[in-house]
Amino acid sequence: MAKDKNFDELKEWLILFLKHKDLFYKKIVDIKEKDGILIVEQKENTQYFAILPHLDVVDKLLDDYKDKQICIVTFNTKPNFDIIINSWKKLSELPMLCIYFVNPNSSTEKKWIIYPFTHSKITEHSALKQGLMTLFESVEEYK
Q1: Which end of the chain is less packed: N or C, by CB atoms within 10 Å?
Q2: Any domain includes 114
């Protein structure tokens, strides 16, 4: 997986976000990176965060991590949003998957998070795209 300044920007944002979230609970034991995956070892479990500035490789990644608790961290862009919509059926079959759409430079909200498996259970399929578009628009698009 090629790394660039976009990868580094997402990685830096994610590490700060995770550490801030953990200030009270102090569950994180270690954070390391391997092949574009941030591995967060906690006292009870391990989480995997795939840092993907562009979601064009999402299918291969999901095949490799389908039995693990994995979160995809990507930029809040229209092309990434479209890939999620087009891959929704496959994504919604993975119970441990979450996706963070991020814009570290947004002047309002910085992220929105979706759990496709859960979301597909509680949302009418006909309202899916509009509902996700509302979430997408809650964070400024990353430029």
Answers
A1: C
A2: yes
User: Are residues 127 and 35 in contact, defined by beta-carbon separation less than 8 angstroms?
Assistant: no
Distance CA 133, CA 40 (A): 30
Tell me the pLDDT of the chain (143 aa) as tens digits.
456 789 999 999 999 999 999 999 999 999 999 988 999 999 999 999 999 999 887 777 777 777 778 899 999 999 999 999 999 988 998 888 999 999 999 999 999 999 999 999 988 878 889 999 999 999 999 99
The encoded tokens of residue 93 equal: 């079959």
Q: Is residue 143 part of a domain?
A: no
Total domain count for the chain?
1
- Residue 41 domain boundaries: 5-137
- Any domain includes 18: yes
- Please state whether the predicted TM-score (pTM) of the whole model is above 0.85: yes
